[in-house]
Structures are given as structure tokens and as C-alpha cells.
Amino acid sequence: MAGIAAYGAYVPRYRLGVDTAGWNSRVERAVANFDEDSVTMAVAAGIDCLTGRDRNDIDGIIFASTTAPYAEKQCAAIVAAALDLRQDIFATDVSNVLRAGTNAIKAALDAVAAGSAGEVLVVVADSRQGSPRGETERASGDGAAAFVISASGVIAESAGSHSITDNMLDMWRSPGDPFVRTWEDRFATEEGIERIVPEAVAGYCQRTSITPADAARVALYAPDYRRHGRLARQAGFTEEQVQASMFGAVGNTGAAFVPMLLVGALEHASPDELLLAVSYGDGSDVLGFRTTAAISTAQRPAMGLSGWVEAKQTLGNYETYAKWRDVWTLDDASRRPAPASPSVSALWREGDKNVRLYGARCRVCGYVQYPAQRVCVECRAVDQGEPVRLSDIPGELFTYSMDYIAGAVDTPLVVAVVDFEGGGRVLCMMTDRELDEVRVGMPVEMSFRKLRVVNGIHNYYWKAIPRRTPAPVVAV
Fold first, then answer.
1. Mapping DSSP to helix (H, G, I), strand (E, B) and coil, where does residue 103 land?
2. pLDDT digits (tens, 9 = 90+) for 220-262
């Protein structure tokens, strides 16, 4: 039986919250850093999901988002390379609709059930933008979720599905639009989500011969906190059944919202529980999953949704976030020459080094060096290096410098030298850092980030970030 064999999530470190000057709201939401987008967050969720698993077992990858960085370029291929997956896999993108996440999970389930793939990795990420300080911006959030869909080692078996497709123009964004557009609220609510979602849930219950009361946990879509509770009641669910919505902590993460709630449900699920994932967007998908005994002993993700939510840092002011999103430009932007366009051929030629982050381990002496060289600098052996992936190996800050005149968005630019556990050293930028925490010897990890966008080319590389761990519980 096809189902979920592993899960993971990602939530950016930074939040807009009550202590953020200029935010003027008590609502907290997660915000991607200036060098993050849906691709980089999908990679982070994928790493979390693949903890302890053999990446060579993955036969396909599906990337889902409404905010893909490319209009014509497969983002699943970028994510697959950054995750160091095999090349002989199928890859596809699902986009342009809020239920892209559940669309992708359903497609993966069908592929595994049909036998065309043994394991499929589904990664869902979104970073939707609303107008500054508007209702959509306050309710939204950035984040990602990932699942391994398989027919073996399943922790939650597929328990049927039901879908409705309905042409509803309540929220949309056309090419060139920086912000999500919405129609009149009452129409969008009464004729849209509050009509379609209960109908989809009723259709699923009829198809699978259950009642809403049979569901242990429900990952339910809603545009905001107020309508989340009302929609749950209209669909026949009690407050105890509905998975906590993340409103007030992370926000509505678009296509990733329901998948992230499903991750949260799996984190706390027990064997033989029925979990429902109910999405919305030009219709609705209802996906059912029955947890198995394996969920009690399965490998947990490195962080999981709860870990990422707790490991956070509040932005000091709204102006910083506005610069990250180009709501206004830097004052000194006109005084600097435009960056040179990256060489596409060089990006392709150096993919193993820059995207997969391969170093080389000497077969003779075991010394690890980055980038890979023909001659081992330790024992001088020639052509004895074997590839070693450094992206998921913990590291430590050996030394660093701070550049205040580099013209970086995140001034000062922190340039770091990282030593990896087991050997290897890399020179890279450091991001997601607060200046008072940067110190020699601090634990760090690598994060796939965007260097810049020039001529429509998104140039990705790995940066060091402070190693994130859940915030400690303070005894009261």
C-alpha cells in the first residue's frame, strides 16, 4: 500500500512579531531571508525529510509551489541536484494553484501505487507576498514541507482521496504582479472556500464510508485564523480534531500550508489514526492517511515542524524585511556597478562543486579537501579522490571576517571559514546570523541559498548558518 514513509519541514529563522518596530501588529509570521526562496526552502525541507535515509532510493521528485523563481525552467531539477539525488529519476513541477502541494502528493501516491516508482520525494514550498502591512501580508508566512512517498516502510498508508475542481477567481497573481490579488471578501468566502471545502469533505466521507468524527487529526486550509475555526465547524470537525493552524506563529504558507500541517499531525500521531489533509484552490483535495505501527519507531526528521517553529529570531524592524523583498531599494544601489551575469556554462560545469557541494576524500590517506583537486595536499597521491557530500555534515567556524563596504543586503557581509566534522574546509558567506553570536568555534551547518539574480539567472550556492536547535524549555 502506497503511503508516507518519511516527512520533514522547514521554517525560516526570522519572524515579524510584536517586538518588530514598524510592523504594528500582534500577529507573528515567518519570513524568508533575502537569500531564500521557494527552491532554497524546498531543499532545506528535503534535507530534514531525508534524515537517515539512502538518497539513492529516490526514483522521482515533485516540486510544488505558487512562487517558483523561474517561469520557464524546472525547479525540481535544481532541488534534486542540491539534494544529491540520482540523475536517472523523473522530475516535475506543480504550480499556479494553492492546492499544488496536495496535487503533488496525490500524483506521487498514484505513481507509487502504479509501480512506476519505488519512492518519490515531494517537496512543497511557498513565499507569497501581500501588499505592505496589508491583511494578506499579515496572514501569510514562508515555509516548506517534504514527504517520501513509498510502498514500503510506510508510517501512514493512503486511505483514499476525493477532489473537486471549481473555477474560482478569489485569489490570483498574474505575471509581473509582485503581490497576491484578492476579490471581495464575502464573495470569496461564501461562494468559494466555505462552499467548496465542506462539499469536498462530504464527498470524501461518502466515498470512503466514514464520518468526519472518524478523523483523529485534520490538516485544514484556511486563509486566516478566524475562518479556520469556522470552516472546521462547517465541515463537521471539532476543535480537538483540527491540527493547530500555525496562525500567529508562522502564518499561511500558501501551497505548503496543508502539507506543513500534515507534518505537524504526523509528529504527534499514534498508530491506527486517520489523518486528513484538506486543501483549497480552484477546488479542493481531501487526502486520507491511516497511520501504521511503524510510526512509533520510525526515524524522525532532524528538526521537524515543531523544531523549526521554536528555533526563531525576531526581526528588529520592518524596514529590514522591506529591503529583503524589494519594497524599497537600498540608498546606495545606484552608486555601485551592476553585477556581472554568471556564466551558464560555468554553472553547469561546476554543478558538483557548487550545487551538490562535493568535496573529495583521498582513498590513500582519508584527507578531505574542497574543492576537489587531482593531487591530495596531504599525501600527494594523484587521482585518488572520491566524492564526498559536505552539505549535510555539521561544521564549526574556524575563523571569519566582516566586510562593511561590500554593498551586501545584509551588512556587514560575514565571510567564514568552516571546518567540517571528519575533515574538509570551505570558504563561504554566512547568513541567518546575528553579529553578537558570531564567534570562532560556533557550531554551524550549510544552507542552500541564492547569491543573486542577474539577467533572470538565479545563482545558487551554499552558505554557512548558525546551527539551529529548538529553543530550550524554560521552567516556570
1. helix
2. 999 988 899 999 999 999 999 999 999 999 999 999 999 999 9
Could you read off the pLDDT of 376-419 as tens digits, one per residue? 999 999 999 999 999 999 999 999 999 998 878 888 999 999 99
CATH of domain 3-324: 3.40.47.10
Q: Are the CB atoms for 368 and 360 separated by under 8 Å?
A: yes
User: What are the structural domain ranges in the chain?
Assistant: 3-324, 335-352+397-476, 357-390
Residue type, 415: V
Distance CA 430, CA 83 (A): 20
| Cα(351)–Cα(337) distance, integer angstroms | 27
DSSP labels, 382-440: BS-EEEEE-TTS-EEEEEEEEESSS--SSSSEEEEEEEETTS-EEEEEE-S--GGG--T
Q: Which long-range contacts (CB under 8 A, 24 or more apart) does 212-215 make?
A: 212/236, 212/237, 212/241, 213/238, 213/241, 214/274, 215/241, 215/274, 215/275, 215/276
Exposure string of 14-53, with b = 16+ CB inside 10 Å and e = fewer, is bbbbeebeebeeebbbbbbbbbbbbbbbbbbbbbbbbeeb
d(CA 97, CA 277): 16
How far is the C-alpha of 377 from the C-alpha of 387, rounded, in Å?
16
Average pLDDT of every residue of the chain: 93
Quote the CA–CA distance of 313 and 370 in Å, as a whole number: 31
**Residue 337 DSSP label:** P
Return the DSSP state at 84. T
CB neighbours of residue 363 within 10 Å: 12
* Gap between the Cα atoms of 297 and 300, Å rounded: 9
